[in-house]
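Lecture notes, unit on protein representations.

Consider one protein chain, 114 amino acids long.
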Amino acid sequence: MLKDRARSHRKNMTQAENRMWYFLRNRRLGGYKFVRELVIGQYIADFACREKKLVVEVDGGQHMLAAEYDKRRTAFLESEGFRVFRVWNNEVFNNTSGVLETILKLLQTETSSR
């Protein structure tokens, strides 16, 4: 079941996801509430701010092999009204402040109504 997989993902996050979660949890980024491993349709989003309909995906090398899957996934999430921001693991470690600044800008940017 998808909820069980999401629960398992929460317990077994990658180092990059753990680092990102440190900065997103407890409303640490601009007071915005994030959840991790949110089930949306048939997919599990790494992190999501429901209020602002923003999904943050932390991608490792395996995503280079799954480009088509990621495109379908992003298209579905966007069809559900979410914006998707993808960041590579190395960016999380090497440019944390830049990544967080970009996420904050996305949160503060209003999207057009659908």
